[in-house]
């Protein structure tokens, strides 16, 4: 028998190629300061400031003026007396709201300015220490030490004061609260809110003045309560119910006082 032919040599398997190293992401470039909505120009705090003042002013104007005119209407049917009392309440309330908002927001702005000055002074006195502090803060937020240090260096090179104000105080030096905006928004919204119960009371007949004003006020409070809840991200039903109960209570109390004093004076 013929010998079997020699088998062909089997080539050794070539080694599997080493996997390519995964790219190591570098530190994220510092982002421009935003207002939380992607707007790099900021301004969210200022807008929310006057919106808050506007909603509060409208609520105060509606409830306080409604309470006053309902109380006066319970004591007298004299349209002129009701009108004079309502206009006086409107003017006094608008000035009071504007002044109160201006003083309150001015105090907050003074505090913000003091924080900016303090951070500026600390950076001038100990820049290395402030850089290390910034890096530690980012490390505490979850970054690796090397990455945190790199981010701190880049942010410091760009704007050191802004970097510290943002991470330590959530403060934008270009978006400080504005007392003038808050005061003006509060005054204007108070006037607009106060006009509703005043006009409803004056235009209605003597027999329907109080119920018409009561219904108009409750509808207006539903609107302002919904807006307030929407701006603050709160539960709308709860916010509206609070306002409705407060408004109804205010008008009920002043109606009772007006009816009592009116009956006493007449008697």
From TrEMBL:
Molecular-function annotations in GO: manganese ion transmembrane transporter activity
Topology class, membrane: Multi-pass membrane protein
Transmembrane intervals: 53-75, 81-103, 184-204, 210-231, 243-266
Annotated segments matching region Disordered: 1-40
Ligase is among the record's keywords: no
Entry superkingdom: Bacteria
Protein name: VIT family protein
Organism name: Cellulomonas carbonis T26
């Amino acid at each position: 028998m013929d010998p079997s032919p020699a088998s062909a040599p089997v080539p050794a398997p070539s080694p599997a190629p080493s996997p390519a190293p995964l790219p190591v992401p570098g530190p994220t470039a510092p982002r421009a300061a935003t207002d939380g909505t992607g707007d790099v120009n900021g301004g969210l705090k200022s807008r929310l400031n006057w919106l808050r003042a506007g909603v509060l002013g409208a609520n105060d104007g509606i409830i306080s003026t409604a309470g006053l005119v309902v109380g006066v209407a319970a004591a007298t049917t004299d349209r002129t007396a009701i009108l004079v009392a309502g206009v006086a309440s409107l003017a006094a309330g608008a000035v009071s709201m504007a002044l109160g908002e201006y003083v309150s927001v001015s105090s907050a702005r003074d505090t913000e300015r003091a924080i900016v000055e303090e951070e500026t002074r600390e950076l001038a006195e100990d820049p290395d220490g402030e850089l290390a502090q910034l890096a530690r803060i980012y490390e505490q937020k979850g970054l690796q030490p090397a990455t945190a240090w790199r981010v701190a260096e880049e942010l410091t090179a760009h704007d050191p004061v802004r970097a510290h104000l943002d991470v330590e105080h959530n403060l934008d030096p270009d978006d400080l609260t504005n007392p003038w905006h808050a005061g003006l928004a509060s005054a204007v919204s108070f006037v607009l809110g106060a006009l509703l119960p005043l006009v409803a009371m004056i235009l209605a007949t003597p027999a329907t003045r109080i119920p018409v004003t009561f219904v108009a006020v409750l509808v207006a409070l539903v609107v302002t309560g919904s807006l307030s809840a929407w701006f603050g991200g709160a539960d709308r039903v709860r916010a509206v119910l609070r306002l409705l109960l407060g408004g109804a209570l205010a008008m009920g109390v002043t109606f009772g006082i007006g009816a009592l004093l009116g009956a006493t004076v007449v008697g």
